[in-house]
Write a structure and sequence with these properties.
heterotrimer; A alpha/beta (248); B mainly alpha (290); C mainly alpha (347); B: 290 residues; mainly alpha; two-stranded antiparallel sheet; C: 347 residues; two-stranded antiparallel ribbon; 4 strands
Chain lengths: 248, 290, 347
């Protein structure tokens, strides 16, 4: 079953066309990588799917229902999470507070004026558990912007997962990471996306081939190819587009 | 020309004169904001300070012309000192702190003039050369008002020339658009900021001298001009000289005609106009920067 | 828990001091304190928007004024209007105004938000000046009856007695302050500080940001309205000046001097300004001069405000960082030089 699907998706910014007839199909439970040279439209595709933009044309289906143009917070409530290429956490809040926002959201605790949030034991417990799972419990009370780059990035990714989404969209999760940090991140992502569906934009082919069940290649706004990793590796058009970048 | 038309024209000249003074003040403010992102609350206090300097020069030397030359420069100097030693140091803290600092500077200037010059209206005479009426088309108009309009156009022209025809102007315009980039090109941006701040303040200073004989010199000068100037900058667009010009002139004319015929509504109209503009286009008519 | 007991004792002492204050310092200083308390609530209400949600308003005075006028008008025109009803008029007067504006305001970019408030604020001020029939213009409305605090059959306390009014004001203003403080501690409070840091991300965590902003906006303005309401009753007079730019500056400068990064900051700011006024006005009329100098000195040397100073002295800088649901303000406040958000600048 396709948990996420786009049909005939086009998008342009004031006449600058960025996406052409994109038909993405993501199966439930798979890890699906989206790759392509810079400027291919990957982040725009994410933005359209997650609700930042309403596409110029075409439809987006999530869990079988049409969600074209739905706002981000609505997508989150339907079970989607998203991380950003440029780290976008609540930089002045602590790691704990950052994750807690996801927990509060998942539990539907929003316009609650009646309890002191610090005394909500189950919320605190769940948040601490998540922090332990991502190995950030030691940095629990540190403001996000004091974390090392790698840990900050981990936090970024974890926030996408803190609402316990069914589908998590990760935009270049390992951007700017060293080799060690990347290896660590791969493990983390693998662990955290067990039993979930993950759509990952990536440039680092190590990450792609370690994690992906299927790969979609985007080039100049169009899908060049889509399929299992070995098929993509063999694909001539893809190789041409990348000019030998794919050393797997 | 019959009497009614003549009255309209007279109103127009009054309005235009006020509009030009308003433009001088607003242009400085918008230049400063456009380039440095600072909304200088103290700007109109400088405007007033210059009027006081002008008064003092006249008291010492009896020459309005000397005051016109010296007072704006002295005011600009004060502005430059404020920029160099106060604003620059807190630039990194952001807009809110700059704003608060300029509020503090405004308070200090507004009270300091009371300390040195007292709280009464200080009269200032229009210089003999500019007194009296001028005959145009059978009707007579105050020469001084026409002088203000002329002087303002002269300054505007000079400003436009420098901005659009000289290398310095090009650099200034570039810095307004993208200060970081200009810095990266090796141009001494802090010095540029100081320079622009000085020029902006100088413009307010000229306006202050120009308006002194008309309104007399008193501590409330800043309030009266203040709101109007800010509205002009906001509606005309932050950083836009053309916008400031248009809105200032329209404001001047509106309030001049407005005051005569729709006395209750004129200020309200202006504010409603501004509110509507902002609601539709939150960056103002011409502004692009936020 | 030693800490807890010490805290409880400290609060108890403070409460006692508040109760005994008029007896210790006399009527004149009692009135000074009431004025301070009014502005403390006003400044705190403002900081709910500024320090906690990151919304910078340049026209908060219109809500203060709306509350004041609503109460004054109610007391003037409604025969036998009870005290608490008048207060409620003040609260709802502001809230209604806020709700009217919130559709426009909740979606604006930061600087547009500030400027629009400036515009509307000035508009309201001009309206107040011009609609002399309703508002009394520059002279304002005054001399309206101040009803007693009246519980039928139980008690009736005369509110024209400054002493009684003091206790009423402290109760109302203190209660409101406590409510505001509690608000920050709730889950909703977490959402608004998150909005301050990164409103895009809040959207991506599943929260509706415009609605959140609208709610905090309405509450903040409501609190300002309460402050205005008490102000009107305290002075038995309200004029258009209450909506003027001076009153829009006041909470900003009080918050900055007291410390924008904490709940209590604005309260300290209000206290500092009250003291400056009291001390300076004895020697000179140039109170604003001193206030201006204080502002400049604070911004240049202690941008974190009074609370920052306190934190330093106590050596509790670390504790300050912990935030307790608040988050650090590192001084990179409102760094929107070229439109980029502070979060992207920070890393």
């Amino acid at each position: 079953m396709n948990i996420l699907e786009t049909k005939g998706l086009y998008h342009d910014f004031n006449r600058l066309e960025v996406l052409f007839d994109v038909n993405l199909q993501v199966k439930k439970g798979e890890r699906h990588a989206i790759i392509g040279p810079n400027g291919a439209g990957k982040t725009t595709l994410f933005n359209v799917i997650t609700g930042t933009y309403k596409p110029s044309r075409g439809t987006v289906f999530f869990k079988g229902k049409e969600v074209t143009g739905a706002k981000p917070h609505h997508m989150v409530r339907l079970g989607m999470g998203r991380s950003f290429q440029i780290t976008s956490t609540f930089s002045r809040l602590t790691a704990f507070q950052n994750i807690r926002m996801g927990v509060l959201s998942r539990r539907g605790i929003r316009f609650n004026f009646f309890h002191k949030v610090d005394t909500m034991g189950d919320v605190t417990q769940e948040t601490d558990e998540i922090l332990k799972r991502i190995n950030l419990h030691g940095e629990r009370d540190m403001p996000a912007n004091t974390l090392s780059y790698g840990k900050h990035r981990s936090l970024e990714i974890s926030m996408a997962l803190a609402t316990d989404p069914d589908v998590v969209m990760l935009d270049e999760p390992t951007a700017g990471m060293s080799k060690d940090e990347t290896r660590y991140a791969i493990e983390l992502i693998r662990r955290l996306t067990e039993g979930k569906t993950a759509v990952i934009i990536e440039h680092d082919m190590d990450v792609v081939f370690s994690l992906a069940d299927r790969i979609t290649v985007l080039h100049l706004g169009e899908i060049l190819a889509s399929g299992p990793p070995d098929k993509i590796r063999e694909n001539k058009a893809v190789k041409d587009a990348y000019l030998g970048e794919m050393e797997g | 020309m019959d009497a009614t038309t003549a009255m309209y024209v007279a109103q127009g000249i009054h309005g235009l004169a006020y509009g030009m003074i308003l433009f001088l003040v607003a242009s400085g403010l918008t230049l400063i904001f456009g380039m440095m992102g600072i909304l200088n609350i103290a700007h109109t206090a400088f405007f007033m300070l210059s009027a006081y300097f002008c008064y003092q020069v006249v008291v010492w030397t009896g020459s309005f012309w000397l005051a016109l030359l010296v007072a704006p420069i002295a005011t600009a100097l004060v502005g430059v000192l404020v920029e160099r030693f106060l604003l620059r140091k807190i630039h990194a803290l952001g807009l809110l702190y700059e704003l608060t600092l300029t509020v503090g500077v405004m308070f200090v200037i507004m009270e300091a003039v009371k300390v040195f010059w007292g709280t009464e209206n200080l009269p200032l005479l229009v210089p003999p050369l500019l007194q009296g009426l001028v005959d145009i088309g059978g009707m007579e108009y105050p020469l001084y008002r026409l002088f203000i309009i002329g002087l303002s156009f002269l300054i505007l022209g000079f400003l436009a020339f420098i901005l659009y025809k000289t290398r310095l102007g090009m650099i200034v315009r570039a810095a307004v658009a993208d200060p970081d980039m200009v810095n990266a090109l090796g141009i001494n941006v802090p010095f540029l900021f100081m320079f622009v701040f000085g020029v902006g303040t100088w413009l307010a200073g000229v306006a202050g001298v120009a308006i002194a004989p008309i309104l007399t010199v008193f501590p409330g000068l800043a309030d009266q001009m203040g709101m109007d100037a800010f509205i002009v900058v906001i509606v005309g667009g932050f950083g836009s000289l053309g916008g400031a010009f248009m809105v200032a002139v329209i404001s001047g004319l509106l309030s001049s005609y407005g005051v005569q015929f729709v006395s209750q509504l004129a200020p309200v109209l202006m504010f409603m106009f501004m509110a509507v503009v902002l609601a539709i286009k939150p960056t103002g008519f011409f502004g692009e920067r936020e | 828990m030693m800490n807890r007991t010490i805290k409880r004792i400290a609060w108890g002492v403070m409460l006692l001091a508040l109760v005994l204050y008029p007896w210790l310092f006399g009527i004149y200083y009692t009135n000074v304190f009431v004025t301070f308390a009014i502005f403390a609530l006003y400044a705190v209400s403002y900081n709910l928007l500024l320090g906690f949600t990151g919304l910078f308003s340049f026209g908060h005075a219109m809500f203060f004024g709306a509350g004041a006028y609503a109460t004054a008008l109610a007391l003037t025109h409604i025969e036998g209007c009870p005290l608490l009803v008048a207060l409620l008029f003040g609260f709802f007067g502001s809230v209604v105004l806020a709700l009217l504006l919130s559709p426009i305001v909740a979606r604006l970019a930061h600087s547009a938000f500030a400027m629009l408030h400036l515009a509307f604020g000035m508009l309201m001020y001009t309206l107040a000046l011009k609609l002399r029939g309703i508002t009394g213009g520059e002279d304002g409305i005054g001399g309206f009856p101040i009803p007693p605090f009246h519980i039928p059959g139980v008690v009736s306390v005369d509110m024209t007695d400054p002493l009684n009014f003091y206790y009423f004001a402290i109760a109302v203003l203190g209660g409101s302050l406590w409510l505001a403080w509690y608000l920050i501690k709730t889950p909703f409070g977490q959402i608004i500080v998150s909005v301050r840091d990164n409103d895009k991300r809040v959207d991506y965590m599943g929260f509706k940001v415009p609605q959140t902003k609208a709610v905090i906006y309405a509450l903040s303005c409501g609190f300002a309205g309460i402050a205005g309401s008490v102000y009107a009753m305290f002075q038995d007079l309200i004029s258009a000046a209450a909506l003027g730019i001076g009153h829009s500056f006041a909470p900003i400068v009080m918050t900055m001097v007291g410390g924008v990064a904490s709940f209590a900051g604005p309260i300290w700011g209000a206290a500092i300004f009250a003291m400056i006024e009291e001390l300076t006005s004895r020697y000179t009329e140039r109170v604003l001069l001193v206030e201006g100098l204080v502002l400049i000195i604070v911004v240049m040397f202690f941008p974190g405000g009074f609370m920052y100073l306190v934190g330093l002295i106590k050596g509790k800088w670390l504790g300050f960082i912990r935030g307790k649901g608040f988050g650090v303000i590192t001084g990179q406040w409102f760094t929107k030089r070229s439109g980029k958000k502070a979060t992207e600048d920070d890393s």
